[in-house]
Amino acid sequence: MAKSRIKKWLPLALTILLGAIAGSGIALYFGLMHDLPEIQDLQSNKPLSITRVYSSDGVVLDQWYQERRDPAPLETIPIAIRQAIIATEDRNFYDHFGVDVKGLMRAVVSNIKAGRFKEGASTITQQTAKNHFLSPEKTLTRKLKEAVLALQLERRYTKDEILELYLNKIPFGSGAFGVQEAGRRFFGKELDELTLAECALIAGMPKAPSAYSPLANKEKAKWRRNVVLKQMLDVGDISQEQYEQAVSEPVVAASRSGKDKAPYFTAQLRKQLGEELGESLLYQGGLEIHTSLNYGLQKFAEQAVRKGVDAIREREGLAPGEVNAGLICLNVKTGEILAHVGGVDFGDSQYDRAVMAKRQPGSSFKPFVIAAGLEEGLTQSTLVMDEEVVFPKSRETAEWKPENYSGNFQGEICFRRALAYSRNIPAARLIYALSPTRVIEKAKSLGIHSELKPYLSLSLGSSEVTLLELTAAYAAFANGGKWNEPNSVLEAIDRSGQVIYRPRHEQKIAVAEEDAAVIVDMLEAVVKEGSGKAAQVVPGPVAGKTGTSSQCKDALFIGFTPEFATGVWVGRDDGASIGRTETGSQAALPIWVDFMKNAMKDRSVVYFPRPDGVISVFIDPVSGKPTSPGHGVQALFIKGTEPRKGAPELRLPEKFLEN
């Protein structure tokens, strides 16, 4: 009886069960289909817009994008890349219907054993669906959607069309999408120039683009390449001879430094504009960024830095990378950055020594002490003792005994000579008379934002600053005392041609124009009479100051003409000595001269501004005493402070009266 009941109801129960399963499957299918994207326009899928960065002389310096893609027809893609991709990603590509059932079952077993979503078993068709339509999240729902889309793609497109779509969309990292951009980005080659080994390396990268990039790790890239070549050998795509030749080929990646224009400049610009405009607009907005950089000057700057560093390396027997340099050139009137070199080779080191590095400026800090002194009545002819001195211990500092670099003393000299010959003891006496706090205030007004410690040794450049800060401050002297915030962006234009960003830059009066004129005149004396004589070969009026930190760890020359202010730093990133005699005059000044000679070539001569409130007087270059016209040197003074015959000599007081 019971058996007959079971027989009677069994067909009905099975029907209900199968119906439920089918209903669930249909519900699941339509649930997945509900929010699946349309695939009809897949082949017309366009790359996102590219933002281009222009120099002031119209050169494209860089291009920024979320994805850089240049689709290539399948017939132009090397057979070796196609074979390598199929051998590593989907050996059954031409046999399955979009989903590899055997591979899928293996992945299910592997995932169950692992207890998590570990292995995907995605075919090339599934990956094409994911790359075009879905997010990269690892979930069962996404995997099911991927499979459904793969089935639709297989119904609509041929295998070769799917493979072409895949090869033109696959991400390789470093902003490169598709095999054509991968060849250019990683090897600097077009598709028809790639070797078998390079094709295999490209094919092996999608598994982990950042790990297997030849730009990031050549050894890992080589290992992965050889795995791909072995798989190609195993499936019969290449011969044993081809395999052995390819695995023995060294990995030679494209050099970034050889391709990028002004890479240190554009790297800083990218960071700045990412904060100002947002990365979404920057990388997807198709903007035109017009910058202040002059590419002609930039090339001169890069050449001068390379040549100068090579000369130092040869003199000191240093290996490549052991010594480096930075150069920054500003428009004196506007503060616009005209040339920016942060190091010898951006591909080797992205550390920007012109903007990021804080190093001791040595004697190139002395003009700030002079600037503070001028406001207290100091003049070029003020006398100071250049002799041994010990400054007493204070609450902030220990006893201090400064020394001149030369190790000798010149006795009583005027401040014009003290600065021209970079005498340390006069600068130390001046900061002692002023107080370090007073000098810090003046340096801050000239845009030195780095922390300055209130020690007497500040007068000799003991506090670390950036090259950009120093150069912008010197530009203020040349600009009649007006300081400009360094700037690099002129404007940003969107795809419709509208200006969407035109930054405003701070400008302020940091030094009285009469004081600025006197400082310029004193810095011209450095070139005419003192430690910067090598700069005399640059045409037109030139002023500047050398700087050398203790043990020649840093060498600088900051100099300017009425149009350009240029700073050069040379040193080692580890803080070691460049060499026993590698001073600012020896190491940095030749780079400055090399650059500025080219920068000033064929330019008309312009002179420094001379306000009505100053007067030119002939003086003795050592004593500062007035001389007959045509004798001694001409020096500028604020009217009423110039030395007169028979008048008492002006000497530096031990302490200026506090205001």
Summary tags:
single chain; 40% helix; 659 residues; alpha+beta; Penicillin binding protein transpeptidase fold; 19 strands
Write the layout of secondary structure elements.
Blueprint (H helix, E strand, L loop, with lengths): L1 H33 L16 E4 L5 E5 L3 E2 L9 H11 L11 H14 L9 H10 L6 H17 L2 H9 L3 E3 L2 E2 L1 H9 L8 H9 L13 H17 L5 H8 L8 H4 L3 H15 L1 H6 L3 E4 L3 H22 L7 E8 L5 E5 L24 H9 L8 E4 L24 E4 H6 L3 H11 L1 H10 L21 H12 L3 E3 L4 E5 L5 E3 L5 E3 L3 H17 L13 E6 L5 E7 L3 E8 L12 H17 L13 E6 L13 E6 L21
Parallel strand pairs: 1-6, 3-5
Antiparallel strand pairs: 1-2, 4-5, 6-12, 7-8, 7-17, 9-10, 11-14, 12-13, 15-16, 16-17, 18-19
Described by the principal axes of the CA atoms, the overall outline is: elongated
Can you list the strand order of the major beta sheet? Answer: 2-1-6-12-13
What is the helix tally?
A: 21
What's the pLDDT, averaged over the residues? 88
- Cα gyration radius (Å): 35 Å
- CATH homologous superfamily grouping of the domain at 67-254: Biosynthetic peptidoglycan transglycosylase-like
CATH architecture of the domain at 67-254: Orthogonal Bundle
Beta strand %: 5-15%
Distance between the termini: 119 Å
The unreliable regions are 20-35
Indicate the CATH topology of the domain at 67-254: Penicillin binding protein transpeptidase fold
Number of strands: 19
- Helicity, as a percent range: 40-55%
Secondary structural class: alpha+beta
User: How is the main sheet built?
Assistant: 5 strands, mixed
CATH level 1 name of the domain at 67-254: Mainly Alpha
GO molecular function: carboxypeptidase activity; penicillin binding; peptidoglycan glycosyltransferase activity
Subcellular location: Membrane
Enzyme class: transferase
InterPro entries: Beta-lactam/transpept-like, Glyco_trans_51, Glycosyltr_51/Transpeptidase, Lysozyme-like_dom_sf, PBP_transglycosylase, PCN-bd_Tpept
